[in-house]
């Protein structure tokens, strides 16, 4: 036994030498609890089945919090380093509009993991917060209701203005909770927001005191159906304690998801300008691990890794897809008091349709006041649906109308927002025809673009537009979501995006109109001056439309494209211009706005990268994909925009683009999700004891998961 203990001491010393966080003892007794979830950040990148990002400009900037950073998902701001999650804030401008002087990161488990009751704890280390930094470890209600109806539990919130004034900003942190005053839930959240717009109740913040927030500290939430308590390290007394009546405060009877972020400035520290920030940069929030323990049979636990969590097959919305036309329905989302409803935001009347395309039910739609905007559709109540398997699928419905006015169809998500497809005046596409007859419309999910998180879909389809100026009648039937089918995956060669050279298409090429299209954002670009192509006979030549001080466009994939074969390949494109103003070239690998977004600045003034010169001649630019991935969090499993251009510094005189392709394709990676329904084959590990007997340990195997083995000499 002495020998084993000596080995343990040597091992612990080695951990210190390697910079591995030492153990922090907890005051909370875990007897009777089981660990149901843990992330120890031992993978190379953040696990997408556990976490997603908040990115860009959000309510944290523009509303209550008034923060002054720009959140990104770039490796510079969020990464895993030596088995530790690092959220790092920088004093820099990275947003395309140049409005923010700081960048940082914010991650969350929304749509990936949520829980009701249990013990949640995380080991966290911060850097110097004095002054202006605002790190937080917290939870929000996993519901489509707005804040504060969601409920909020802030386990660690540091950097408050009162602690700055007291000189204890690096030794003390706060715990606090928020909820809505209304004692009972209201079935329709829109009515709730309309009739009860009351501010949140706030249990007064209570302080946690440690030797230093710059040391590793263990922060623990103990949440039951009648109480919320928070502990730090091995301190036996909770620094926050709150008892509640679940009949009166319903927010804390529903599941919550986890957030980790490092904000700069804002209401909490009371600093609202870059000049007021005195904390040193780069600043860091480090997380060694985060884990959840629950008592068997108490509360609930959801993860996107659970069997069946991701919807599959054809998913009908309401009763409008009845299957009488031979359509095979795999599951159905009910529009009833328990799960979802048909809503009218404004100026839409719904009725039983007079002429169903199949079965006995259809939905009649009319706009009673042509002088007002209209909008409405199908929405869940407080729930969301995981449609991640539909990233390359379709929203399908039968539709008939004779109106020639413009309108937009959209889908929405709880975690990020909405995406829309616009139909201009008289425009017919995706099977929609305006002849008063039934036609089947199939809109690729990728065409909605916008800001949709398919793990948290809560608006299944909506119709919206500006005042039509005339009577509008429509009819809808047979509405369902169609799961993605297998798509060709380019590999072992070169993949053409916009090129006519055969050697650049040996692994295939994008088929415009059926697989993707060029979208000029908000009509900001129009045809530019006549330009000879760099190869072949076609070329894109642009200038900005009159009245636009910004411009942009991109090549969209209707079905997210798997470009993992080009992990070690190269992006090539030819470009020419004489315009002196700065612009960006990019690509995107997510439907979320600002997530998976790469922007390469071309600042002009002789400082453009990759040897580009603004001399009106064609220049070939070649960028290794690995270099692109170093600049952005690119997920090559789901490339949604293969190429983008953006200018925010005034109008564009001329820009030519040609010969876009990826070279150096190898064998692609496949089976991103694995089989949700299959039982993984176990992995067996044989350990040879000192007495020469063997012990075999087996545990499930899942793609994308790492296992850590720990032992105690008490068992040897």
Please give a quick description of this structure:
It is built from 5 helices and 44 strands.
What does this structure look like?
- The protein has 716 residues and is mainly β.
- It is built from 5 helices and 44 strands.
- Strands 1, 3, 4, 5, 6, 9, 14, 15, 16 and 18 form a 10-stranded mixed beta sheet that branches.
- A hairpin with a 7-residue loop joins β15 (227-232) and β16.
What's the layout of helices and strands?
Elements (H helix, E strand, L loop, with lengths): L1 H17 L15 E6 L12 E2 L5 H4 L6 E3 L6 E4 L2 E8 L10 E3 L1 E3 L4 E4 L1 E9 L6 E9 L10 E6 L3 H6 L5 E9 L8 H7 L4 E10 L7 E7 L3 E6 L7 E4 L12 E9 L18 E12 L5 E4 L10 E4 L13 E3 L6 E7 L2 E4 L10 E5 L6 E7 L13 E8 L5 E7 L4 E6 L15 E6 L12 E9 L6 E11 L12 E4 L17 E5 L4 E3 L12 E5 L6 E11 L8 E7 L6 E6 L8 E6 L16 E6 H7 L7 E9 L7 E9 L18 E7 L5 E7 L16
Parallel strand pairs: 3-6, 20-21
Antiparallel strand pairs: 1-18, 2-7, 4-5, 5-6, 5-18, 7-17, 8-19, 9-14, 9-18, 10-11, 10-17, 11-12, 12-13, 14-15, 15-16, 20-31, 22-25, 23-24, 24-31, 25-30, 26-29, 26-31, 27-28, 27-30, 32-42, 33-36, 34-35, 35-42, 36-41, 37-40, 37-42, 38-39, 38-41, 43-44
């Amino acid at each position: 036994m002495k020998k084993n203990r000596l080995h343990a001491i040597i091992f612990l010393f080695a951990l210190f030498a390697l910079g591995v966080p030492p153990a922090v003892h907890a005051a909370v007794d875990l007897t009777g609890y089981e660990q149901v979830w843990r992330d120890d950040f031992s993978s190379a990148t953040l696990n997408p089945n556990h976490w997603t990002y908040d990115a860009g400009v959000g309510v944290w900037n523009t509303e209550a919090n008034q923060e002054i950073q720009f959140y990104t998902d770039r490796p510079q701001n969020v990464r895993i380093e030596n088995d530790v999650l690092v959220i790092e804030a920088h004093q820099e401008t990275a947003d395309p509009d140049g409005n923010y002087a700081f960048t940082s990161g914010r991650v969350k488990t929304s749509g990936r993991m949520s829980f009701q009751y249990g013990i949640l704890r995380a080991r966290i280390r911060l850097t110097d917060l004095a002054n202006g930094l605002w790190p937080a470890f917290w939870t929000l209600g996993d519901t489509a209701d707005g804040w504060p109806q969601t409920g909020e539990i802030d386990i660690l919130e540091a950097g408050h203005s009162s602690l700055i004034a007291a000189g204890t900003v690096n030794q003390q942190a706060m715990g606090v909770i928020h909820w809505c005053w209304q004692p009972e839930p209201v079935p329709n959240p829109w009515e709730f927001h309309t009739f009860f717009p009351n501010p949140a109740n706030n249990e007064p913040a209570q302080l946690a005191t440690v030797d230093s927030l710059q040391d590793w500290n263990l922060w623990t939430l103990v949440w039951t159906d009648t109480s919320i308590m928070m502990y730090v390290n091995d301190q036996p007394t909770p620094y926050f304690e709150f008892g509640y009546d679940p009949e009166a405060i319903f927010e804390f009877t529903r599941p919550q998801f986890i957030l980790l972020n490092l904000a700069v400035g804002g209401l909490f520290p009371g600093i609202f300008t870059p000049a007021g920030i005195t904390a040193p940069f780069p600043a860091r929030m480090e997380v060694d691990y985060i884990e959840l323990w629950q008592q068997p049979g108490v509360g609930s636990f959801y993860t996107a890794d659970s069997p069946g969590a991701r919807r599959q097959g054809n998913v009908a919305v309401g009763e409008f897809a009845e299957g009488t036309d031979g359509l095979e329905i795999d599951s159905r989302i009910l529009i009833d008091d328990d799960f979802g409803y048909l809503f009218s935001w404004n100026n839409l009347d719904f009725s039983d349709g007079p002429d169903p395309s199949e079965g006995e039910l259809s939905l009649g739609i009319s706009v009673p006041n042509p002088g007002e905007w209209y909008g409405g559709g199908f929405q869940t109540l407080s729930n969301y649906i995981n449609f991640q398997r539909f990233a390359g699928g379709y929203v399908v419905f039968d539709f008939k109308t004779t109106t020639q006015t413009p309108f937009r169809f959209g889908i929405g998500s709880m975690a990020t927002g909405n995406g829309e497809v616009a139909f201009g005046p008289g425009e017919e596409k995706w099977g929609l025809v305006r002849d008063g007859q039934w036609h089947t419309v199939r809109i690729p999910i990728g065409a909605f673009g916008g800001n949709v998180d398919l793990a948290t879909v809560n608006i299944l389809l909506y119709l919206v537009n500006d005042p039509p100026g005339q009577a509008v009648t429509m009819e809808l039937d047979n509405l369902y979501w169609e799961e993605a089918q297998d798509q060709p995956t380019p590999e072992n060669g070169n993949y053409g995006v916009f090129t006519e050279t055969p050697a650049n298409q040996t692994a295939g090429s994008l088929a415009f109109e059926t697989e993707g299209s060029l979208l000029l954002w908000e009509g900001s670009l129009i045809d530019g001056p006549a330009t000879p192509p760099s190869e072949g006979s076609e070329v894109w030549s642009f200038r900005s439309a009159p009245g636009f001080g910004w411009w942009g466009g991109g090549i969209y994939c209707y079905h997210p494209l798997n470009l993992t074969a080009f992990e070690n390949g190269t992006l090539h494109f030819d470009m020419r211009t004489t315009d002196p103003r700065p612009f960006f070239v990019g690509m995107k690998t997510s439907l979320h706005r600002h997530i998976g977004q790469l922007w390469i600045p071309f600042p002009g003034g002789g400082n453009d990268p990759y040897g580009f010169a603004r001399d009106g001649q064609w220049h070939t630019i070649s960028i290794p994909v690995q270099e692109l991935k170093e600049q952005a969090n690119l997920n090559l499993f789901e490339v949604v925009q293969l190429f983008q251009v953006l200018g925010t510094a005034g109008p564009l005189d001329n820009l030519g683009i040609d010969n876009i392709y990826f070279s150096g394709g190898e064998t692609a990676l496949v089976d991103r999700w694995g089989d949700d329904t299959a039982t993984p084959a176990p992995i067996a590990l044989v350990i040879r004891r000192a007495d020469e007997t063997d012990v075999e340990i087996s545990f499930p195997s899942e793609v994308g998961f790492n296992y850590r083995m720990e032992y105690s000499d008490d068992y040897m």
